[in-house]
Design goal:
By secondary structure, the chain is of the alpha/beta class. It is built from eight helices and seven strands, in the order H-E-H-E-H-E-E-H-E-H-E-E-H-H-H. The chain has two domains: 152 residues, Vaccinia Virus protein VP39 (Rossmann fold, 3-Layer(aba) Sandwich), CATH 3.40.50.150; 53 residues, no CATH class. It has a seven-stranded mixed sheet, sandwiched between helices. Strand 4, helix 4 and strand 5 form a beta-alpha-beta unit.
Length: 208
């Protein structure tokens, strides 16, 4: 099993109704239904061709539904209390949240493969709060997974870059050093990257 999939699955609280946005093959809904972690899984994708893969994988499952639609538009208001969006860029996730509607009590599990600082800023400025953060690693790549709900939070520059809770997590240290190495590549010629690199290394020293 891919580590990223396991991390996302473990962040899903038991007993709820899942909406997997951009479900593609429907692997996560299949896993959660098999484990009995969710009552129902709604597989959503903007592409009918992609959604057909999930239909085949979960054919005949009584607790699986399939919706073709753009982001949260595929859902009825309030019908899902756990909404997963992974495998997308941070700007795409922000756009889906900006234009969609969901229950005020919904838990969003977000896994952006790019644009994390911009996504964190969007969440902070639009009434969302990061409640938990985890790091997964697959094939030399790191993925940050966030649990988010409606609420208020204030992030400083270092938290926008590194995460709200990751600097305090021992199991995130390798990822944070990896982030430092990425910043070092452009820091010599970019004052903003130099400042970000300084903040990142300062946080790692404080929590080492």
């Amino acid at each position: 099993m891919e580590d990223r999939l396991r991390v996302v699955a473990d962040m899903v609280p038991p007993g709820g109704v899942l909406a997997d946005i951009g479900t593609d093959h429907g692997i996560l809904p299949e896993l959660l239904l098999k484990e009995g972690r969710v009552q129902k899984a709604i597989c959503c994708d903007i592409s009918e061709a992609s959604l057909s893969k999930a239909r085949r994988r979960l054919a005949g499952h009584p607790n699986a539904e399939f919706r073709c639609g753009d982001g949260l538009a595929a859902l009825k208001p309030g019908e899902a209390d756990i909404i997963v969006m992974t495998g997308m860029g941070g700007h795409t996730i922000a756009d889906i949240l900006r234009h969609g509607k969901a229950s005020d009590d919904a838990l969003f599990i977000l896994g952006a493969h790019s644009g994390l600082p911009a996504l964190r800023r969007f969440l902070m400025e639009n009434g969302y709060a990061i409640e938990s953060e985890r790091v997964a690693r697959e094939k030399r790549r790191y993925y940050v997974i966030m649990g988010v709900r409606r609420g208020a939070m204030i992030l400083d520059a270092r938290q926008l870059l590194m995460g709200r809770f990751l600097p305090e997590r021992e199991d995130a240290k390798d990822y944070l050093w990896h982030l430092c190495h990425i910043l070092e590549k452009g820091a010599r010629y970019d004052p903003k990257k130099r400042a970000a690199l300084y903040r990142a290394k300062e946080a790692l020293r404080e929590n080492s």
